[in-house]
Each structure stands twice: as structure tokens, then as C-alpha cells.
Amino acid sequence: MSTVIRHILSGILFSFLLTIAILTLVFHLFPPESYAVLWEKEIGNVAFIIWLLGFVLAGGTIFGISTGWYWKQRLYRIERKLDKLSKGQRIDDEKEPYHELKSIEKRLELIQTRIDQQTEFAQKIATERAEEREKSLQEIVVQERNRLARELHDSVSQQLFAASMMMAAINLHDLPGDHEIKKKMQLVEKMLQQSQLEMRALLLHLRPVALKGKSLVEGIEELLREMKQKVSMDITWTVEELSVDKGIEDQLFRIMQEAMSNTLRHAMATSFHVLLIKREDTVILRISDDGIGFDMERMKTGSYGMQNMRERAYEIGGTFKVVSLPNQGTKLEVKVPIPTETKGRKVND
User: Fold this and answer.
1) Euclidean distance between CA atoms 36 and 18, whole angstroms
2) What confidence category does residue 344 fall into, taking pLDDT thresholds of 50, 70 and 90?
């Protein structure tokens, strides 16, 4: 039952009770000779009791509509602010003009303040962990990863490229023979090309392992330029200079690596676009491709990479959203709030 209808019924009930109370008092002080006068007395050929009931219904309805609409607007205002909080957005600074709801308004502001503080604390911890990881990273591990990446690139990757070129050259010639054999040779060429993409995705995981002193913008641009030279894909990007904590940079960069690796290995895409901007107090990273996409319901339980990216976004207090449809590409968005007003703010219980 809606708020307005509930108030209308309450208003009608209240009007009936008030009317009965008034009539009881009047008849007690001035008892009539017969109660039949309520039916016999007419106004405009309509019995007085009917007029009385009509006024009761009209008055109760008007009162119910006015109070119901009033409270519906007030509750909608609170619901809108709660919805913003649930989506990780900041509530507006407009003050509640009605005294009855000011206590709720103060509680919402307190929740917003604590969310900001917890986000800032989580980001601070992420920054400290990122710095500790860099300090504790053993040089031998870095060297081994680089060695593996170099050997794979110089041996397996080059051999796959050569085999792919040879198979492409063979398929270009209109050689006589069985049609089924030609189809199988074309399939082998596609398999070699897919293996090349898999190898490039593997090399992407091995190198680079971290930003290594670069800013997030520099790291992303360097990675995208390198992949643009190696992959026959339309890779574009729009990035703006921004300054965030090291922990946020590290996690966003790793999300970027994971997303590109997924695109190379699974998407069969022809275009790949990256957007990195900062609007107000929020850093936004959007990654999209025009690949084969996937079924969102099936991917919820079976994608380690997607879960890994989601956890990285949550670790820095951000939100993670993926939209994908079969044969319509995939879009990924990470939003990370950067609290600027929580420092020095006192939280009152």
C-alpha cells in the first residue's frame, strides 16, 4: 500500500471518529426528540446524514492526500540520498528544511563521513602495502621474469610468427587439391594467430611487473604503445594527467593489465579503447573492446580474472562494473573516490 493511500484511509478513519465524538457530545448536551431527524432533515432534497457522511469522506480524503503527499516527498528525499550512498556517490549539501527529519539528515551525514574515512583508510593501507611490496620485491624474481619473457619472445613467439607468415603465404596461393584440406590449412593459420595472441598476453603478464617509478599515465601509455606495435588491433586511449596515491596507481595499472590480457586471449576484438580521467573527486577508468563478449550470468561464477579485478577495485574503496553481451563487446568501468574533505573532520557519535 502506498504512502498516499495509507494516509487517505487514516484521514477518513480519523474524520469518522472525530465526527462521531462531536455528535455524541452534541446529542448528550442537547438530546433531540428523535434521532430520526437526521434522516428526515433534508438539504437540497438530500438527507442531512448523507451530507454529513459526504463531508466526512471529503475532509478525510483531502487531509489524507495532503499529509500523504507531504510525507511521500520527505521519504523520497531520504531514499534518494540513501541510493547515492549505496552507489558510492556523495550526498548533496542541501539541508533538510523540516525539523522532523533533521535527525535522519544528521545520521546520513555521519554515515557519509565514516564512509569517506574508511575509504581513505583503505586507500592508505593499499598505498602502504604497495610500497612494502616494492621494497620487498626480490631482484632475482624480477630478473627471472624478464629472462622468461625475453626467451619466450626470442624463441617461441618468433617461431609462431614465422609459422603464421608461412601458412598465410601458402593459403594465398590457389593450389589445386582437396577443398577440405584448404579449410584445415586456413584453420591452422587461425590457430597460429590465436596462439600469437595468447603468447603476447602471457608476455604482458610477465613484463612489465609494476610501474617501476613511472606515473600511472606514463605506465598506461607505454604499455598501450608497446601493444599497438605488436598486435594488429586498433588500440586507442584518452588519458589525463592526474595525481593519486601510489596504492591507487598500482591497483589501477594491474586492472588495466588484466583487462588487456583478457581481451587478447578471449575477445577476438578488432578495437580496444582506454579512458582514464578524474572528475571532481573521482578517478574513472573505462576499458572497452568490440569483441565477442560473454554471458554475464555464466561469467559471474567462473572468471578468476574478473574476480581479481573486482577485488583490486574494492581494495582501494572503488566500484567495479562490467557490461557485456554476446557478439557486442565488453565495457569495464572502475570508479575510485578520492576524499578531500575528510582530513581534519571530526566525527560525532
Assistant:
1) 21
2) very low
